[in-house]
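Quality-control log, excerpt.
Job 1 of 2 completed; input and output follow.
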Amino acid sequence: MKCPFCGYTESKVIDSRPAEESTTIRRRRECLACQKRFTTYEIIERLPLVVVKRDGSRQSFDKVKLINGMVRACEKRPVPLATLEDIADDIEQELQSNLEREISTVEIGEMVMSRLKEVDEVAYVRFASVYRSFKDINTFMEELTKLLEGK
């Protein structure tokens, strides 16, 4: 690590501790040349995830969009925002640990639905109705029947 004061490339770590909910590590360093101290932060490098949409277009994965979709499905339901954020974090973590850098909206939608089903069935049906684009009442009833049979 290059010293910000003198530019020397050697330093020693004085203190190291987790920061920002253990997603980064804060390191206090001392330059071996000028003995001045400085702080560095170490974070996990996240590889970019690309979402392949139904029309074939591609865009970067956006956790905020994922949360917003779930918030709309959970409108007027007793589902805390923290729960939806946890679901989004869980999905993002699963996608990051996957070796694939491109993921389809279909796969993401299935991941969201499986988790929403456990949290709130009404939110699950709402999300599924938009995600699966139910064409008529029969396809909607089929989904409800599957949900009821799963109990």
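Job 2 of 2 completed; input and output follow.
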Amino acid sequence: MNQKANFLGLKEEELIDFFSSLGEEKYRAYQLIDWIYKKGVTSFDLMTNFPKELREKLKKTAFIEELVLLDEQISKDESIKYLFCLPDGEKIESVVMYYRYGYILCVSSQVGCRMGCTFCASGIGGRVRNLEAGEIMAQVLFVQKELKRRDKVLKGIVLMGLGEPLDNFTNILDFLHLVSSPLGFNMSLRHVTLSTCGLAQKIKRLAEYNYPLTLSVSLHAPTDVLRNQIMPVNRKYPLKELMNSCRYYVKKTGSRITFDYLLIDNFNSEKVYAYNLANLVKKINCHVNLIPFNPVKDFNYRPPSKNKIIEFKDMLEKSRIPVTVRRSLGRDIDAACGQLRRKSYHQPKGGDL
């Protein structure tokens, strides 16, 4: 791995310390932040308010993370999926999705994933490694630059790409700091969503920071028997423990939780499961997001019929559970997490679960 300092992964005070170690005044750190986050410049040669001697010194001691674009797929619904190569040769994905309120970026937090959910292509092959905060930020800056080139604006970020964000807890906290820093990317965390498959203890830890972000919990089944079949994490954190952590999070932060529920035909989309789901979440300040399964080549799951989706939604509404059905995006490209990355490998690399 590169032994130079990655400026994208350093907080303001760390940048000040870095420049101090070079014998430079702290205002150089603020100049650098301006070049990276406001001007979108990643080459030291273009930082014209730095003396040439300093620029040469920076080339030897630091770098600004840049991703190599390997593939780009554009959907007719304006979704865009990017496949990137990291300096160590590993590959990650980012997806831009268009909603009526603007463009949302879904970023990866790990190379692969060790959670082993049976419906998700990002977990095939397991987790290779965690992404550092700078590698996550590099995805954001790349997409921001691409959208700006098209006169578009990035409105929000979702930590829901490759990987389980709470399984990379420290780097995610650093990323949240970087993305919300007034001197840096300066995006309110109200425009950031963090999605987890249900690491109950990490949800409680996250609650202690009281971030104003949206916590999205991937539920996908309303009983332990059903959830055990598709989400191995449920064997460690069964629904009772997960729901307790969600209640704690809501009480601690005062925020509403989103429960994502993947609708899979002939598995969890019958009305009885809607009834079970309503009973499970009814005492939690929440919103249920129904997601018809987006077909993945490696799996035999299929989305239910439109009528079954409507019946499921109606049952929740009758129980006074706030609910929406997410519009499927990117079906004409490899939009589901991990599809494009998996296609790019002849044989996927991975770690153990």
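Post-run check on job 2. Residues 346-353 have pLDDT under 50 and may be disordered.
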